[in-house]
Amino acid sequence: MQYPSHLIEDAVNAFARFPGIGRKTALRLTLHVLRQDAALAELLGNAVIKLKQQARFCQKCGNIADAHLCNICANPARDQTLVCIVEDLRDVIAIENTGQFHGTYHILNGLISPLDGIGPDQLNIESLVERATTGQISEMILALAANMEGDTTAFYIGKRLAGLPIRISSISRGIAVGGELEYADEITLGRSIVNRIPFGQQGVGHI
Question: Is 0.90 surpassed by the pTM of this model?
């Protein structure tokens, strides 16, 4: 694709680095910014810079936080004995939107995927095991995608937590096999959380 200006080309290349953004979409975004007041570009640029410079991670669950604990972990109204294990922040947002879960979370920052070179050591699993051994957790819910990577991760975590006096459960089969939490409708996802089952009851690969 030929561009009339290196400025346009540089902006398109920058937008195209985002996941799910192709070059045509990147061009539309570039032209939109170009047509707007300079204040929009400044707002966008400052927001991204501020995000990178000031964003912190919750010391307990790994969520994005403004302090050493995120708003969920710091909320005394949340059930601190109940932990929902998710892949990333998008899943936290999806579950929170259901209004059906009142515990806390633990963000893995990915799933085990040998084909992509992602192993357990690259995920936020050790801190999860540490939380499990504190004696302050009564139940951990595996809310991971119903695909090969999600099943592999759930199986590994289940093995790591085996023998601890903690109930290990998983979301029910309301989420279709191969589906990801962020794309599930709120009613289905909410029912899957409420109607969770003991992990392994439906067999490996069926969480």
Answer: no
Please name the fold of domain 75-198: Dna Topoisomerase Vi A Subunit; Chain: A, domain 2 (3.40.1360)
pLDDT in tens, 56-106: 899 999 999 988 999 999 999 999 999 999 999 999 999 999 888 999 999
| Residue whose token pair is 């080309």 | 9
Alpha-helix residue ranges (DSSP H) falling in the chain: 6-15, 23-35, 38-54, 89-96, 126-132, 148-161, 186-194
CB 23 within 8 A of CB 67: no
For 143-194, write each residue's pLDDT tens digit.
998 888 998 999 999 999 998 999 999 886 555 444 455 555 565 666 667 6
- Angle between helix 186-194 and helix 89-96 axes, rounded to 10 deg: 90
8 A C-beta contact, residue 75 and residue 167: no
Whether the Cβ atoms of residue 73 and residue 57 lie closer than 8 Å to each other:
no
Paired strand residues for 2: none
CATH code for the structural domain at 6-54 = 1.10.8.420
- Select from 158, 163, 88, 102 the least CA-distant residue to 133: 163
